[in-house]
Amino acid sequence: MSHFPENQYLIRKKILKLLGGAFHIYDASGGLxxxxxxxxxxxxxxxxxxxxxxxxxxxxxxxxxNIIDISATYDVIDSETGAVLGAFRRKGLKSILxxxxxxxGQNDQEIGIIQEDSMALALIRRxxxxxxxxxxxxxxxxxxxxxFKQNFNPFVMxxxxxxxxxxxxxxxxxxxxxxxxxxxxxxxxxx
Length: 191
Fold this sequence. Notes:
The chain is α+β, with helices and mostly antiparallel strands and 191 residues long. It is built from 3 helices and 12 strands; from the N terminus they run E-E-E-E-E-E-E-H-E-E-H-E-E-E-H. A 12-stranded antiparallel beta sheet has the order 3-2-1-12-11-10-9-8-7-6-5-4, covered by helices on one side. The longest helix is centred in the C-terminal third of the chain and has 22 residues, at 169-190. The termini are far apart.
C-alpha cells in the first residue's frame, strides 16, 4: 500500500532550525502526509519518515551505506516489512557541476535517474547565485516519473513534487525518499 497515493505533494524544510532539520510533506489539500527530523552532525545519515509529527508510525527509513563517500548510496527501507525498496546513488564528481542521482532497484540495478534541469542553470546556481530555484527531472526506465521543483524562499526550502499520472502509487513512497534526499543532501549546499 502506498503512503503517498496522490500525484502532488509539497516537501517543506525549515532552514533556520538550529540543530538538524525538520521535513514536512503536505498533500495537495495541505494535510500533513509525512514528517522527519534530521539530526545535526551525524557522520552517517539515517533519516526516518513518519506519518505524523508525534512520530508514532514509521513509514520508511533512508540509510547511508558509508560514512563519507562522494558517490554515496542511500538505501530506502520499508519500516513495516523491513524490505529494501531500492536505493539512490549520488553521481559524485559529476554532481559538483550538475546534480545527478541514480535510482537503483532492490538488487542495485539501475532503474532510473534524477537530474538537475540544465547544466547552464546549475553552473549559474553554483558560481553566481543560489537565488535560482532548482528543478529535478526524475525518470524510471527511460520514462518521465516525476519532477521535484524548488520554490524560491530564502527562509524555508520547499519542493513541489509532481508525479506523472501513470506512475504507480506504490512507487510514490520510494520516490518521495528521493525528494527528501534532495532536501537533506543537496539542500546543504545552499545553507
